[in-house]
Design goal:
- The chain has 309 residues and is of the alpha+beta class.
- The chain is built from twelve helices and six strands.
- It is 47% helix and 8% strand.
- It has a six-stranded mixed beta sheet with strand order 2-1-4-3-5-6.
- Strand 5 and strand 6 form a beta hairpin.
- The longest helix has 26 residues.
- The chain starts with 9 loop residues before the first helix and ends in an 11-residue tail after the last helix.
- InterPro entries: Thioredoxin-like_fold (IPR012336), Thioredoxin-like_sf (IPR036249).
- This is Disulfide bond formation protein DsbA.
- Keywords: Membrane, Transmembrane, Transmembrane helix.
């Protein structure tokens, strides 16, 4: 029985085969990016992770791209000494709680977008592909949580993609989903993402630096499944790419050159002084005003002037 459809010409068959091959290549590329999204980033950071060591006395300086900073760009972002940005970014492609310089804050425990009244600001500039940032976070996570619980600090987290690695974009896209849809778990997920990198450096294997690895990390810190299920689509579409770009722009505009960079009360902190699990607590305590005289002492009658005879 003959077909009603006209027989394709040789040119048509060749074009159909070309389109099919193109679809297969694109599908393969998407699959490769999804399953091994961190291959380039891990190859680029493996040696650096060994160099730094747990003491991380030597930090890798990463220069901001030449020519990216100008007076106009710099004026968009407050200097660390000027405190927090005062407005939200309020743009599509940026999480709704993120400030105009790409940062986000915690001041009352792990509650997103809060500020501890009268508490000093701890600014942390980081790249999710930076081994030393992972070391810093793993070392100080518990301490920072305690400081936040006691309302001793306001934590401002400043992301940037200065190492130009795909892993940073992947994590920030997943983090964007969490900030928007599971804010209560956002600080925990931030730490869990750095744990993936720290483990990769320790084991010299990037097998967990995948979308599935990020989903597993989210599950570990109680991010709802309906939220983590959106990671893949966000990463594939680079949903929060504008946020990544904004953070990198802010980093360059402030003339910062390495990660992690830490500011406390607007002053840059020497990283060699932050090598123990209590060093941030000690930094905060040293900045706390000395105690006022006791109430009993303040109620003592003040000395009367000697009366002349």
């Amino acid at each position: 029985m003959s077909s009603n459809q006209p027989r394709q010409t040789k040119a048509q068959r060749r074009e159909a085969a070309r389109l099919k091959a193109k679809e297969l290549r694109e599908a393969s590329a998407r699959r490769e990016r999804r399953n091994m999204i961190a291959r380039r980033s891990f190859i680029g950071i493996a040696g650096l992770g060994v160099t730094g060591g747990l003491g991380y006395l030597v930090y890798r300086g990463v220069e901001a791209k030449k020519g990216t900073r100008d007076d106009k760009a710099s004026s968009k972002f407050p200097a660390p000494s000027e405190g927090l940005a005062t407005a939200k970014a309020n743009q599509e492609g940026i999480p709704k709680q993120v400030l105009s310089d790409a940062s986000w804050t915690y001041g009352e425990g792990s509650t997103l977008d809060t500020v501890a009244a009268a508490a000093p600001i701890l600014d942390i500039y980081f790249d999710y592909s930076c081994p030393h940032c992972a070391e810093f976070d793993v070392l100080h996570t518990q301490e920072i949580n305690q400081l936040l619980s006691g309302k001793k600090i306001t934590l401002a987290l400043h992301p940037a993609k200065i190492l130009d690695q795909e892993w940073t974009s992947a994590v920030m896209n997943a983090m964007g989903v969490v900030l928007d849809e599971a804010p209560a778990q956002s600080l925990s997920f931030h730490g869990a993402a750095f744990e993936i990198l720290a483990q990769a450096i320790q084991t010299k294997s990037q097998s967990n630096m995948t979308v599935e690895g990020l989903v597993a990390a989210a599950t570990k810190v109680n991010v709802p499944k309906e939220v983590s299920d959106k990671f893949k689509a966000a990463i594939d579409s680079d949903k929060y790419g504008k946020w990544v770009k904004l953070g990198t722009e802010a980093f360059a505009a402030r003339d910062l050159q390495s990660t992690p960079t830490i500011f406390f009360k607007g002053e840059k902190v020497d990283l060699s002084k932050l090598q123990t699990q209590t060093s941030l607590t000690e930094l905060v305590a040293a900045a706390t005003p000395t105690a006022q005289p006791s109430q009993q002492a303040s109620q003592q009658p003040s000395p009367q002037p000697t009366q002349q005879g």
